[in-house]
Amino acid sequence: MNRLVILLIALIFINNCSLNENSRIWKDKELSTQPKLKKVFEEKKIEVQEFNQLLKIDLSNITTNNKFVDYQNNFGSQSYKGELDKIGSYKFSKLEELNQINFKPLFLGNTIVFFDKKGSILKYDENQKVIWKKNHYSKTEKKLYPKLNFISHEESILISDSIAKYYSINSNTGELNWSKNNTYPFNSEIKKHKNKFFVIDYKNTLRCYKIEDGSECWNLQTEDSFTISNSKYSLIIIGDMVVFSNSIGDITAVDIESGLIIWQLPTQSSSIINETYNFKTSKLVSDGNSIFISNNKNEFYSIDVKTGTTNWISDIKSNITPVITGNLIFTVSNEGYLYAIEKNKGNIIRVTDLFKIYKQKKRKNIYPIGFAIGNKNLYLTNSDGKLIVVDLQNGSIIKTEKVSSNLVSKPFIYNNNLFLIRNGSIVRYN
Asked: Whole-angstrom Cα distance, residue 121 to residue 119?
């Protein structure tokens, strides 16, 4: 009996001893000299300062358009006079479990389509009245608070959601055309090309479906991560290619018809697979020749469309979507600095501090949500609910306005109006 007790005590003692250099039992010399493990996700610390802040940029060659171009996420400078007169509000029940609103309404002529807390789809007229309201979820599904993404096709609206469902409805009536389920929830916007549409799920799989009935044409799975990403994945259509980003920074170009990889560019070490919740990227943006994407690791990429090779990389920390205007790219860093960048070479022309309106102590807790450009002015929303209006030519702040007490989306410009999503309403400005 005594021997048994002694044995048990010895086992407990050994089990509680760690096999490292700090253990008083294990003195393995080779082990004790091993270097400490390096943290996988590291944000490069780069001191940011204003640069050429008095430089006036020539924007005379920038054309202003009224189109809400979506397939390449390249909206450029759009028509908006910028009075910021509130003229309407589209009401819906508040969404759940959102750190920030990163969804967008669907604009159809003079109407708007969006969703509410339980996944009901609402279509509004130009006077903010509900034309129809439809819900295509079961009682159980409603309790999951699905988040919806939209794209229109002829007289249909295609929807993918956060609970692994995708379906098509009639845009005039809201009635269901067809409905299907995926194995995993979706985490990207929807893009379409001819008779197909594309969406990415949480397993880093790009899926191609037929618009007619939702049947799958093909799918392509890239390297999976162990954690769920904290930001949406992105995809764009360029010619007969669909290009998409995944949670670990891979950029992949795929043939639309066959689903075969044309090229792939890993922007990060595969070891970041464990840290995807911390890793955040902007949406992909393209002018047809180059693709642009930035992240919160101080990396802003320009990528050649045909080959997938890197044109240039700039040290800019930003996970909000840049905007291409002519030969320039504009973006706002996570610290609130506005960058004007030469598109072809990556040269930084001017850096302007837009967060100088905040005291130093407060600005540490503020981050940009997103921006749009209208008539050569930049409209930036921040995490504190403020909207900052900036003159792009000289970088000066024209106006700041409180538009929300908490959650707010990036601005959307459509038909000479500016729209913002607050939690519970879409606000329209003239």
From this structure: 6
Which sign, positive or negative, has the C-alpha torsion 406, 412, 416, 422? Answer: negative
Q: What are the structural domains, with CATH classification, of the chain?
A: 57-100+323-430 (2.40.128.630)
Provide the pLDDT for residue 44. 62
205-240: pLDDT as tens digits: 999 999 999 999 999 999 876 666 667 899 999 999
Q: If you count DSSP H runs as helices and E runs as strands, how many of each does the chain have, helices first?
A: 4, 34
Q: Is the dihedral of CA 338, 342, 343, 346 positive or negative?
A: negative
pTM above 0.90, yes or no: no
Among 269, 219, 220, smallest CA distance to 248 is for 269
**Buried-state track 247-269, b at ≥16 Cβ within 10 A, e below 16:** bbbbbbbbebeeeeebbebebbe
Q: What Cα–Cα distance (Å) separates residue 117 from each residue in 54, 96, 132, 405?
A: 46, 6, 16, 19
Instruction: Identify whether the C-beta of residue 273 lies closer than 8 Å to the C-beta of residue 248.
Output: yes
Exposed, middle or buried by CB within 10 Å (0-12, 13-18, 19+), for 39? Answer: exposed
* Pairing mode, strands 64-65 and 77-78: parallel
pLDDT of residue 229: 66
Please give the helix or strand (H or E) that residue 2 lies within, else none.
helix 2-15
Residue 331 has pLDDT above 90, yes or no: yes
CB distance 52 to 394 below 8 Å: no
Q: Which of 32-46, 96-110, 272-286 has the lowest mean pLDDT?
A: 32-46
Higher pLDDT, 101 or 326: 326
Q: Which amino acid, 160?
A: S
CA distance 390 to 44: 28
